[in-house]
Amino acid sequence: VGRPSKNRKEAALESQIYWIGMAGIVAFTVSAVLTVLPKGTNLFSASVFGIITAIGGGTVRDVILDVPVFWAVDLNYIWVSLGASLAVFISQNFFTRKHIYSSILYLDGFGVALFAIEAADKVWHLAFGRPLAPIILGIVTAIGGGLIRDVLAGRQTLLMGRELYAIPVLLGCTLYVALLALLPAFRIYGAVVCCLCIFGLRAAAIHWDLSVPEWLAMKPKSG
């Protein structure tokens, strides 16, 4: 009798994760389109940047894993990203309002946390390159789309700046992989805790404008 109850709980949790993931797709898309709009881009280009940012990291992950690409299995990821791109392009004045843009940044941070841990979990349970591959591909999934966007847009990438973005993902994925190795029975609780850790660090960085300390940053050589 207890087993079906557990299955229902897991199904409910997976459904919640799915819809939160869709919210993350929207956040990734909105932040990407807002990034490229000042360059005078058109609707088509804005949509391309939005979709690439939203699905780029997960696509690279699935290609490396040699599994069906997640958005090819469920095209809703593409449709949601396309819809968000269109909404931002038409209503950019609304999305650039300070409180709206701030909310998008926090939602983006939560999406980063969710996608990173979800990816690390997927890679771990495929027994691919343990223990390092789940960490590496968790990071790739979370920030890969943003990196592709920045390269295509000719911007400084997330990894080249001092923004506290990738480090929280690294710490969260590392902690989650350690929990999977040592306490696999607490997988769900561990995933929630690690997601909150990543989001908490990212939210703190947004709220207090935190960045990587200068002593950890390499200073460019003067010409």
Radius of gyration: 18 Å
Contiguous low-pLDDT stretches (5 residues minimum) are 1-5
Alpha-carbon distance between the termini?
72 Å
Q: Give a quick account of the main beta sheet: strands, pairing sense, barrel closure.
A: none
Number of DSSP helices?
9
Q: What share of the residues does DSSP label as strand, in percent?
A: under 5%
* Content-based structural category: mainly alpha
Mean of all residue-level pLDDT scores: 88
Number of strands: 0
The gross shape turns out to be globular
Task: Return the string of H and E elements.
Answer: HHHHHHHHH
As a percent range, the share of helical residues equals over 70%
What can you tell me about this protein's structure?
The chain is mainly α. 76% of the residues lie in helices and 0% in strands. The chain contains nine helices and no strands. The longest helix is centred in the first third of the chain and has 35 residues, at 2-36. The relative contact order is 0.12.
Summarize the structure.
The protein has 223 residues and is mainly alpha-helical. The protein has nine helices and no strands.
List the helices and strands and how they pair.
Layout: H1 2-36, H2 43-65, H3 70-73, H4 76-90, H5 92-95, H6 98-125, H7 132-153, H8 166-182, H9 187-208
Based on the model shown, name its key terms:
single chain; 223 residues; mainly alpha; 9 helices; 76% helix; globular; disordered N terminus
